[in-house]
Amino acid sequence: MSLLSVRDLSISFGGVKAVDNVSFDVEPGEVFTIVGPNGAGKSTIFNLISRIYDPSSGSISFDGQDITRSRADEIAPLGIARTFQNIELFEHSTVMHNLLVGQHSRRTTSWLSDALFLPATRREEHNMREKAEQVIDFLDLQPYRDKLIAGLPYGVRKVVEIARGLASDPRLLLLDEPASGLSVEETQDMAFWIEDMQKDLGITILMVEHDMSLVNQVSDRVLALADGRSLAFGTAEEVQSHPDVIAAYLGVEEDA
Amino acid sequence: MRIHFKTGYGQDIRLFEDSREAVQNALLILAAVSAPWWLDEYMLGEVTYVLIWILAGLGLMILAGHTGQPSLGHGAFLACGAYMEVILLEAGVPFVLSLPLAGLFAGVVGAVVAIPALRMSGIYLAIATLAFGIMTEDIIILLTPWTGGIEGVFTPTISLLGIEIDRYGDPDRFYWLCLFVVILITVGYKNILRSPTGRAFTAIRDSEVSARAMGVNVARMKTLAFGLSCFVTGLAGALLAHYLTAFNYEAFLILISIQLLLMVTVGGLGSIHGAYYGAIVIGLLPVVIATLRQEISDFLGAGNSSVPGMETAIFAVIIVAFIIYEPLGIYGRWTKIRIWLELFPLARKDMFRRQKSYLKTERMK
After folding, report:
1. Is residue A224 domain-resident?
2. What residue segments make up the domains of chain B, in order of their start?
3. A248 with A37: CB under 8 angstroms?
4. Residue B4: closest CA among chain A residues belongs to which residue?
5. Which residues from chain A sit within 8 angstroms of residue B9, using beta carbons?
6. Can you tell me the distance from the alpha carbon of B189 to that of A59, in angstroms, rounded to the nearest whole number?
7. For chain A, how many structural domains are there in total?
8. Left, alpha or beta for B37 (phi > 0: left; psi -120 to 50: alpha)?
């Protein structure tokens, strides 16, 4: 059974149909990529899955459970983590602090126990820090552990955001343009990390990306969108050679 | 610069960063506890007043400094605590219970106010809470049977487990009582900050969208922040009732709410120290100005008569100066001085240049 299944999903903002009848299934363990020109509705699909937007029609289900009408904060506890296109880290906190917030969905203590710092809270703090250290180790973030986000370079912030997602032990990780704004070397690192996350940690990845070299390198399956509609679907090569995709990106000759 | 060699998770979790900080805090508490022996009665009264302001400031800091929800109506919760304390004591409830109950009442009122406030943020929330603050006077007068209206009320003397604590009769005991409450709340506050609850608060402040995606129930957390914040401010109100011994609605004019917000801003938003520094400055400034009144009057060439409105003017100048030159408040300035001293002579000129943050999208509000 597929891990995430999106059926006939649509949303419109005013008169604009941002996403129009899109359906796809993400199988466990794969890297599924959504590509498409600007304004194709890629990030909107992410925001629909993480329940920031309400779809006008269609359904989303995760692991057999319907999440179409869930609250945004009920998504993380199910095992879906995400990153944002424009980096939404907690700027005035350290990297460690960000990774600890990333584990919020797993907290079991109440605020009263926190205020009194009962043994349960202390134990949980230990466990959360242990998990955070594992993620820091996995993504080579040791030099930045106690640094404030506000002082970090862009490339590191991108990695920290992925780390924050990983800290919650997700089954599905949504990456919104992980390579945007990164240098060639950083993009290459990103590709290796995505492979590691898929193979070593067994995390299913749903990704939106423009950088075709990264898409080719890591994707198992690719879905191409344009103007909110799905254009083509298949492996990276199949999608890139699809005539509709070429037309959407480059346009068609008038007298062809 | 102090570098900590970390060998365990416990080190990151503990209350004080290192033994030096623990010793500093212990000395500070020792000095505070022994204050009645080395301060005269007048100054002790002023310090007690500052302690009450610190408590009220700590309450507002939870909301404005750590959760990022400005409130211009916190004087209302001060009033809730103060009047509830008097009502409970007159109903025969012992002080041990009346103090927490007065705080709890303010906390519940705060949580209820939070429900409509959840839909607002930033300037709109400030305006809504301002309206609440302005209404306070009128509500107090409307509830005359309970609040004494314009005539006001007298606060009964505290009797704590058989010990009489009268603000004028035993200023030492009243001071220690206030100090005890302040220390207790500060420890609780620090505990909240080093645990998931506090992290959820700061997450909401820094990026609500992101907090939600991490599984933080934003509505619930904001309500909790309002509740805790108003609880602490309500406790301060109850102590204020005993400090004033007799008061009416004039003790809770909108100016008090504004002064509270200025206090946490001048002290340094987003730090516990900020509430302390702010309360010390705002609480002791009138005393300092009064002491220097003659010199200032001479300096301004006003002869023996004091210049009308001088205190307010000096106050205003200090606040404007802070907002322009040090938005991080006294605590922010102190942090910079400390780092400069620790690195001496290696500090760079540009070290504290304000970081330009990357553009954040407002699309997904």
Report:
1. no
2. 22-254
3. yes
4. A146
5. 125-126, 129-130
6. 43
7. 1
8. alpha
Count of A–B CB contacts within 8 Å? 126
B139: nearest Cα among B226, B253, B245, B238: B253
* Contact between A80 and A69 (Cβ < 8 Å): no
Q: Report, as an integer, the average pLDDT of B102-115.
A: 92
Gap from A224 CA to chain B (nearest CA, Å): 24
Q: How far is the alpha carbon of B79 from chain A, nearest alpha carbon, in Å? A: 25
Coil, strand or helix at B349: coil
Contacts of A116 in chain B (CB under 8 A): 188, 191
State how far the alpha carbon of A148 is from the alpha carbons of A62, A128, B312, B351, in Å.
Answer: 34, 19, 38, 14
Tokens (6 digits) for B165 = 């604590």
Q: What is the pLDDT of residues B292-312, one digit of tens each?
A: 777 777 777 665 556 677 777
Q: Which residues of chain B are at the A interface, by a Cβ-Cβ cutoff of 8 Å?
A: 9-10, 12-13, 188, 191-192, 194-200, 202-203, 205-207, 209-218, 224, 228, 270, 355, 357-361, 364
Encoded tokens for B162:
């058989």
> Structure pTM?
0.89
What digits encode the pLDDT tens for the residues B237-269? 999 999 998 998 888 888 888 889 888 988 888
Asked whether residue A134 is domain-assigned, the answer is: yes
Cα of B206 to nearest chain A Cα, Å: 5
Show the tokens assigned to A252: 């068609």
pLDDT at A45 over 60: yes
Interface test with B, best of A104, A168, A173 (most B CBs within 10 A): A104
Among B191, B215, B224, select the one facing A104 at the smallest CB separation: B215
Q: Is residue A138 part of a domain?
A: yes
DSSP letters spanning B43-95: HHHHHHHHHHHHHHHHHHIIIIIIS----S-HHHHHHHHHHHHHHHHHTT--H
Q: Which amino acid is at B151?
A: E
Q: How many residues does chain A have?
A: 256
* Residue-level length of chain B: 365
Model ipTM value: 0.90
State which residues form the domain around A140.
89-159
Structure token pair of residue B188: 């609780």
Cα separation, A190 vs A179, in Å, equals 7
User: B104 to chain A: which residues are within 8 Å by CB?
Assistant: none
Flag whether A148 is in a domain: yes
Looking at per-residue pLDDT, the higher value among B185 and B158 belongs to B185
